[in-house]
Amino acid sequence: MFRTVIVGLTIATLAGGAAFAQGIKRTPLQKVEFPEGYETVTAIAEVPPGGASGRHTHPGAETGYVLEGELELVIDGKPPLKLKAGDSYQIPAGAVHDARATGDKPMKVLGIYIVTKGKPLAEAAK
């Protein structure tokens, strides 16, 4: 059952993110159907030095913790955030954003996404 969920989540993540992924790698760890009408997805996102996730949105909120490296988080309408290992962040539901790895190491975050059930985890910004 767990393996089926991970395989399905991986396919959904790839399908939802292929259009904007510029070197981002997401490794799904867990998916829980909670709260009602939503799915809570935990994943590791990695971007190589100088790479970017690409401008995208999620059908729900994202919160996360920087595990390794440094990044600049750009959320439309807000000043860029410089983050490093040990920092946490929040991205409002539907906000267009991009994460750019800065420094000479890959950027790795633990992301938690609380998204509308049945929608792709991410979509390219329009």
Automatic annotation (TrEMBL):
| Cupin type-2 domain ranges (all copies) | 44-113
Q: Which InterPro entries did the record assign? A: Cupin_2, RmlC-like_jellyroll, RmlC_Cupin_sf
Which keywords fit this entry according to its UniProt record?
A: Signal
Residues of the signal peptide: 1-21
Q: Which SUPFAM superfamilies match?
A: RmlC-like cupins (SSF51182)
Quote the Gene3D superfamilies the UniProt record gives: Jelly Rolls
- On whether Signal is a keyword of this UniProt record, the answer is yes
Q: Which PANTHER family match?
A: CUPIN DOMAIN PROTEIN (AFU_ORTHOLOGUE AFUA_3G13620)
Task: Identify this protein by name.
Answer: Cupin domain-containing protein
Give the source species.
Tardiphaga alba
